[in-house]
Amino acid sequence: MNKPLSTRLRLGVASIAIAAGLPAVASAQEVPTNEQSYAIEEVTVTARRRQEAMQDVPLAVSAMGAEELRTQLITDISQVASQVPSFTFQTQNALESEMFIRGVGSVRLNSATADPSIGTFLDEIYIGRRGAATPPIFDLERIEVLRGPQGTIFGKNVVGGAINMITAKPTQEFDAGASLAIGNYSSLLAEGFVSGPISDKVSARIAINHEQHDGYAHNVVRDEEMEDLESTAIRGTLLWDISDTMRLTLTADASKSDSGGSARHAVDDPNAPGFGFITPNISDDPRTNYSPYEQYANRETSGLTARFEWDIGNLSLIYLAGLRNGEGNIRWTQAGVGSPPSITDSTLTQYEDYTGLTQELRLQSDPEQRFRWSTGVYYLKEDVKRQSRNTANSFLPGGPGSTRDTLDGDNRYIASSETTSYGVFGEIEYDIMPNLTLAVGGRYTTDDKSLDSRAEILSLGPDGDLYSPAPLLEEYHITPSQDWSEFTPRVALEWKPNDDILVYGAYSTGYKGGGWQGAAPDAAAANKAYDPETATSWELGLKADWLNGRLRTNLALFRTDFEDLQVELLDDVSMTLIVANAADALIQGAEFEVKGRVTPWLTLSASGSLIDAEYQEYTDPLRGISYDGHRIQRTPEYQYTVAADVDYPINDKLSFIASANYSYQDQMYWGPENTNREDGYGQLNGRFGVASQDGRWSLTLWGRNITDELYRISVIPFAGDEVSLFGAPRTFGVRLGVRY
Alpha carbon of 41 to those of 33, 554, 740: distances in Å? Predict the structure, then answer.
């Protein structure tokens, strides 16, 4: 008989705690001295805005280093998510990356004023629009994923977690490297970098990345490829050691990508029998699309970052400035078909332009002192321009005022928003005893938002029709503005009984600003703002190294209470997204990460999470239905990853290298009504080959989704069907990497 989740959660936590304690016995045993030579490599992170060992950071953070990112051919955050506890990633289109960490996230940012729940940072510069302004992953030193609210020392709106992308910096010695990976679907991934000194005080680095592949899907009406890609990115960094105490780092980057867009394909909705307008008339092949319209997804990003560091005695002054820009153009059909076979062939043409200007001044004390502190001021100016045009055509019978009338015609939403965010923050740490530290911090944030939003009816459809395509009922032009403020404190207590163990408890808070709907039916609804959401989180964690550093166990228990949680609810009649505040939500769970160096050439690892996440008080504003007790959308009850890495010396010059990882996530619901769901699924990735022991070259065969698992990354329920986007199929190929 199945046990309730709460019981399973307690049992799982207890099992993890017992397992974590087992190595304590082994660590007391004598370990041969030569085994110290293959201890797990220490990872340095900047999760607290300063460099420190990941095992010394009292919060849940996962990191992937440069070599791991390169060898796994990771170019997108979605490829990171499957290997991080409590992290799920879906997508709607090129402008919409839907990230959830510990049950907290945002679906579509279809409003110019919407903020993501998961903060994305590139060299500490906030990127406010996840799709339009986020560059591809390449030539990074590491990626850090911080789980839970980060509302104290990080910038704007980090209510659910943060993703830090740290770029590789110029070196004082000449260095260069390149790799080329080719595979099925005519895929090609080429990247390279050159780094070294220009003079005694100036060094530089330049990196380039190019990725392309044929389409994973096909539009059978237009005979066009979809879900293909051609992307190029470049980054240059200049490092100037002005003096022994001053340093200036300048970075510029740009990227451009083009695609035939995302291919939506309808499957029968098991929750709405007797309908299914689309599925009886199309192929069962999930990688087909039947739209008569040209579809595309094009994106350009660029950025400039300046970081000035000045050591003033025992103090460090840091000034950070960044300018991020992104522009996206997409067209996609909401049902993926023409009309007929669908009851409508609603097609969205969307444009978004984002500009974000960040400035931060931070003063930090000597991190080696017993009493340590950091304080600063933060400024962010964001401008978002967004257009969405709905061109709809329905074959249904009926005249003016009928259902057909509401699914026929042409309208457009045009919006521009301006957000100014101010922040003052500080944190102090005090060593109560040599092995016991108290940290207290807080941030006061003010978001000042203004919106200029206009809705236009371009056509009502056939002569005599009364209505614009849903949801628009009338033309309007509104210019609302509002400001919100919030104080977000954090308190943490950390205890280190020895150099290899850290136990911590933390109380933290997060905040996400309010905004307005992106596609409202009338002026009254467009003028009504939704409120900010706030999160309060408690976390208890253990980080430990055992067996002379050959075994690492990181555990975390957490509970997060939300007030006014912003929930995106799909209106499947008008096929638009409504953002409303749920009165309360509760998320609690456990996470673990275990890594062991079994032999000098074999490393095994596992990670996972168990989450109980539900709405405490939430009534559907569209239908008046209570969702109290329903599971929070996009949040599996459990997920896990197991992995193995091999680096076995064949002789004194050559090694056999191999790695494999299998990730699984349990079923999840696509919306708060808990009807449409995605069954649990797993993915297997791997590589094997040979490499020189001096690290100069490697040759490997690689594969992703090796078992060709069919899974969905988006679902829109519509008239008895689930209009779906599917994840990438099996891909494989060969990679050659060289290093100077």
Answer: 17, 15, 23
